[in-house]
Request: fold
Amino acid sequence: MAELIINEIVEAGIVDTLVAADVAGDEFVNEDGDVFIVVANADSGAHIVTINPTQSTTFSPGFGTVDRDPIVVSVAAAETKFIGPFPQIFNDINGKVQVAYDGITDVTVGAFKLASAR
Reply:
């Protein structure tokens, strides 16, 4: 499993820095629940991206205990999707979110968050 480096989006802009998806999946630090991923699929067929919560339920004020399903996103051929941000219920014990792919042929990914406004 590869660890994605978080790219901060600043006022002056950044160049997207997508890397090849790892066959064993990818992970990234998600301390504040403000990180999202970009998944680009240059393959000729769709690929599925799955992010599983570390708990199956969570407490939501006004709603009580609610079920939390995995996030499952289909990224069509020649398509790029922005996925997230991810609430901390998706963090593992190390504060990281785990990302799985059904296939990685011509799939690239990057992790991003907004820089703090000044």
